[in-house]
Amino acid sequence: MGLADRIGATTDRAVGAAKDRLGAATGNAELQAQGLAQNAVGRAGGHGQDVEGAAQDISGDQP
């Protein structure tokens, strides 16, 4: 995995965690789910796994 991939995965984890916390604090379940999904994409990105479809299922987003 290259540097750009690692930076992207780290960014997804950080932004996802922030969305999760903000959604939880404000009672916004949709934002919280998006955060959890984005965090999962970032974590899996570090392992070369394709989980974007699963993350979209979790957050309810459609492609």
Please explain how this structure is put together:
- This protein is an all-alpha fold and 63 residues long.
- It has one domain (3-58).
- Helices cover 78% and strands 0% of the residues.
- The chain is built from three helices and no strands.
- The protein has helices at 3-26, 29-45, 52-59.
- The longest helix is centred in the N-terminal third of the chain and has 24 residues, at 3-26.
- The radius of gyration is 12 Å and the shape is elongated.
- The protein starts with a helix and ends with a helix.
What is the end-to-end distance? 25 Å
Quickly count the domains.
Answer: 1
H/I helix tally: 3
Q: Which of globular, elongated, flat, extended, rod-shaped describes the shape?
A: elongated
Residue fraction in strands = under 5%
C-alpha-based Rg, rounded? 12 Å
Task: Please describe the structure with a list of short key phrases separated by commas or semicolons.
63 residues, mainly alpha, 3 helices, 78% helix, 0% strand, elongated, CsbD family protein, YjbJ_sf
